[in-house]
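=== RUN LOG ===
request id: a7f3
mode: sequence -> structure
chains: 1
length: 83
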Amino acid sequence: MALNTQALEERIKKATAQVLRVPVEKIQSDSRFKDDLGADSLQSVELVAAFEEEFDIEMDEDEATKVQSIKEAVEYIQGVMAA
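=== RESULT ===
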């Protein structure tokens, strides 16, 4: 079942809010995990795990570290789910 981009983004925002303990209303499409939302390296790893669990996917570790924002996460996860 393919998710539309908006539904996918909402689920990513929700997972991000839980991991980073940030109100979901403060998370925008262009929010960057480290610069805007304050993620540290441990939380970055936790985010990958949360996305993998949320979408039942496996993210390539090297590729996942290149994902810096909500928008990039949407694009990356769409690509993984389509593969």
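=== NOTES ===
The mean pLDDT is 95.
DSSP finds four helices and no strands in the chain.
=== END ===
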